[in-house]
Amino acid sequence: xxxxxxxxxxxxxxxxxxxxxxxxxxxxxxxxxxxxxxxxxxxxxxxxxxxxxxxxxxxxxxxxxxxxxxxxxxxxxxxxxxxxxxxxxxxxxxxxxxxxxxxxxxxxxxxxxxxxxxxxxxxxxxxxxxxxxxxxxxxxxxxxxxxxxxxxxxxxxxxxxxxxxxxxxxxxxxxxxxxxxxxxxxxxxxxxxxxxxxxxxxxxxxxxxxxxxxxxxxxxxxxxxxxxxxxxxxxxxxxxxxxxxxxxxxxxxxxxxxxxxxxxxxxxxxxxxxxxxxxxxxxxxxxxxxxxxxxxxxxxxxxxxxxxxxxxxxxxxxxxxxxxxxxxxxxxxxxxxxxxxxxxxxxxxxxxxxxxxxxxxxxxxxxxxxxxxxxxxxxxxxxxxxxxxxxxxxxxxxxxxxxxxxxxxxxxxxxxxxxxxxxxxxxxxxxxxxxx
Length: 436
Fold this sequence. Notes:
By secondary structure, the chain is an alpha/beta fold. It is built from 14 helices and 13 strands.
C-alpha cells in the first residue's frame, strides 16, 4: 500500500464519496499552490492565494505553507512540472501537510499524477468551494444542487478499482465481468439524472410563481454580489427580515425573497441570492441555474460591493462575468458600495462608478438614498398616464399605487384624477381607467 493510499486527507482514507473533499474530523494541514501564467500580474496571483486561504479556513482546514510558480503555460501532465512537484513534496514533508490545494482547476489526469508524486491528496479551488457549499446547503433544493455539482465534478475523476462486480461470468456469459469503476460510474450517472429531473420540477414551479408575479405587476429586484459583501445584512436592514447573517464565505446559498416598500408607495419583491467569487466552478453555475433564473428575470439588480475590500474592481468584474454566463448581463444594474463605515476617513473610493450609492448595511447609513435610487431606476422605464378612478373603486386606486408611482391625485365631481408613472404592462392592465 502506497503512502498516497494511507495519508489522511480530502481524498484519502476519510474522503471519496462520503461527501466532503476536506476531512473535518480534524483540521487538515494545507499547502497552497498558485501559478502565475505569462501575461498575468504576479500580485493578482498573490491576492487569489489569499482568497484561497480564506476558502480553506472556511472549509475547516489550516494553511501551513504556500508556493507560487511562474510559467508560460500549464504543464499537461502535472500542471506545474515535475521539478516543481518535487519541490512541493519537500515542502509538504517539512511542514507535515495532509493536502495540497491548487488555485486553478486540475484535470483528472493532472490530479492523479500529482497525488502519485506527492504521496498525499491534491485538490483544486473548485473542490474547496464545492466542499463549502456542501456544508452550507440547508434547503432540499440547495442540497440537490450541491450534490449535482459534486457528482459532475467527481464523475471524470473516478479511480479504476481492482475488484469486480457480482457479474463474474457464467455459462454463456463468460468474461472479465464489470469493474467496480463501471459500477460506480453508472450509479453516479443515474443519481445525476435523478437530481436533474428533481431540479427541473423545482424550476417549473418557480416559473409558475414568476408568471404569477408578472401578472400582479410587482417589480422584482435581485441582490447580487461577491461572497461576503453584505448582501444578507442589507436584505435584513431594508426589510426587517431575519435572514441568517455570518461573517464567512458563502453563508447564504438559498434564495430569500421579501417584500420591500419604496418611497412613493410602490411595493417590490427583493431577493437575496448566492454570492459569486473568482473562478466560480462551472459545475456550480450549471447546478444553481434554476435558482439564478431569479437574477436573469429581475427588473433591477442591486450589485453589492465591499467598499472596504482589497480589490473592489476585481470583485465587480468577477460578478459581471457570472452575470453574463447566466444570461443576466442586460438586466439594469445599480452599484451599491457597502461597508462604507469601515473606510475610516478614506472617503469616496477613486474607482467608484458614477451613479453608485454608498451605504452601510450594518449601521443603516445611506439606505434612504439607496431606496430612492431603486425607486428612480424602476420608474425610469415607465410611462406617465392619467387615470380617472370613481370614488367607489378604492381597490383600483390601491392597484395603481402598488403598480407604479403616483405623481398627483386630484378629486373632482366624478372621482379621482390620478397621474401616475406605470410600466407598459401595468398601464395595459389598467387601461379601462386611463383617460390620457
